[in-house]
Design a protein that fits this description.
The structure is a single chain. With 107 residues, this protein is of the alpha+beta class. It is built from four helices and three strands, in the order αβααββα. It has a domain of 63 residues: Arc Repressor Mutant, subunit A. It has a three-stranded antiparallel β-sheet. A hairpin with a 5-residue loop joins β2 and β3. α1 crosses α3. The longest helix is centred in the last third of the chain and has 16 residues.
């Protein structure tokens, strides 16, 4: 029986984080070694929840084996937010006519 003080998903996430990347069978064995025995359906549900939360990434290696790894956070800005910032900068710059533009020197 597992310790109910720490939620199962947290324990599983920590095991994946420590390993960096492992297969589902390796993760299952690591949990059993730590004294945590859970039914397969609960194991799969927990992996699915962690994947939905964006914490892990699960990919199929073969018909029966899955690779589980920590999901990398995307640092990319939202495209709409990026466009909004560009528009704000243009509006701000247009408030200063002549600045940033090359002036023509009369001959």
């Amino acid at each position: 029986m597992r310790n109910m003080a720490i939620p199962l998903r947290n324990t599983i996430y920590e095991k994946i984080k420590i390993a960096g990347s492992l297969t589902d069978s390796e993760l299952s064995k690591a949990l059993i070694k730590a004294g945590i025995s859970i039914p397969e359906d609960e194991f799969n549900k927990t992996l699915l929840n962690l994947e939905i939360y964006g914490l892990i990434k699960v990919t199929w290696l073969t018909k029966d084996d899955r690779r589980i790894e920590i999901a990398e956070k995307e640092e990319d800005e939202d495209e709409i937010e990026k466009q909004n910032m560009e528009n704000l900068e243009k509006e701000y710059e247009s408030g200063f006519p002549g600045v940033g533009q090359e002036e023509e020197i009369p001959e």
